[in-house]
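>> Question from a student workshop board

For tomorrow's exercise we were told to take the sequence and the ligand below, predict the bound structure, and bring the output to class. My setup keeps failing. Could a helper post the expected result so I can at least see what it should look like? The ligand is iron/sulfur cluster.
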Amino acid sequence: MTSFAERKKPISPEWDPWDAWYTRSKEGRYRLTSVEFTVTNLCNLRCEHCAVGEALVEKEGVSLPVEQLIRQLEKVEDLQTLSITGGEPIVNRHVVDNTIRPLLQYAKQRGIYTQLNSNLTLPLSRYEDWIEDIDVLHISYNYRDEADFQRMAFANANHQPSATLTNRLFQRLKDNAIVLSKAGVFISAETFLSPFTAPHLPHMHKEIAEMGCKRHEVHPLYPSDFAKGMKLLSVDEYKAAIENLLNDRDPAIWILFGTLPIYPCSHHQSDQDLWLRLFHEPNITVRQDPDGRNRLNINAFTGDVIVTDFADVPPLGNIKTDSLTTIFDLWLDHPLAKKYHCYCPKAHCTGPNLLVANTYYQDVDFQARKAHISV
Ligand code: SF4
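>> Workshop helper replied:
Here is what the output should look like for this input. Compare the format with yours to find the bug.
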């Protein structure tokens, strides 16, 4: 008999199980198909752009029993993907052994796709004996060189580590990515676009390709937490950075544009043209925000459930008292969800992310707009 795991279709530009598009377009509504756990607020880095930022800690207690987390997952009938994030999920061995491994085993046995977010700077041995249970290893890559890494990865540290140490961490990140990619791990490397990273995007893309990563994710810088106050690109600068990458890319690498701040209801011809270009170029996808469209985030310590791991929306419930599907249905009725859950099927668009809309489109009523193009 074929196991659930064997029935999983490989992830590809044609099949991205985190994409809320499939349920919305097939069933006419969003469903909870994706759950993310924040399993730790410890991290060995203090990046300037960290969206967890002030929530990072030096010490933390014990999380809720994993059986309690799994009991909640059992009730989510449509569950398709499970994401694990932090902090740095791998930094605490107790978390790896008592939360991450059991969650991955559960997901494997149920045929659920998994993603783990890591900065990949820990020794390779810390990843080796469970990594085969991960479908996507998500890393951040926003650096041209060691100096960039040192400046960015410890911008919010109380004590600046030596260049020798930060150089070693940066090299380890790259070496780990190469070894794990060669071993068949699907690494998706994300670059955020800011006035600093945008001019160097093609260079970073090349390095990501050289490390063997299968996918390059490009997202806006989210002006949240540590990143509040960092300079952002204008929409025109964002478009220019994307065009620049498209003209100088490795066609073998899948590029995923996440939470793109450009929409087919724009009156600007250049926005419409770019949307069409992204849709029709091979090995390119646009994924609008899963948060709140098919995903909820659970804090594994408190049980609080939030709609995203960095938007300033207070917890919507808690797994000690509420079921995830009830919380999700409540969220779909929330005024913020109603405001941004617009949908233009002919243009393959499911509307903006909360942070992006707040940043770039404060005065726009998306419910009153419609796409001007069809893909
Ligand atoms: S779904 Fe929303 S953002 Fe997308 S084109 Fe339609 S109105 Fe604009």
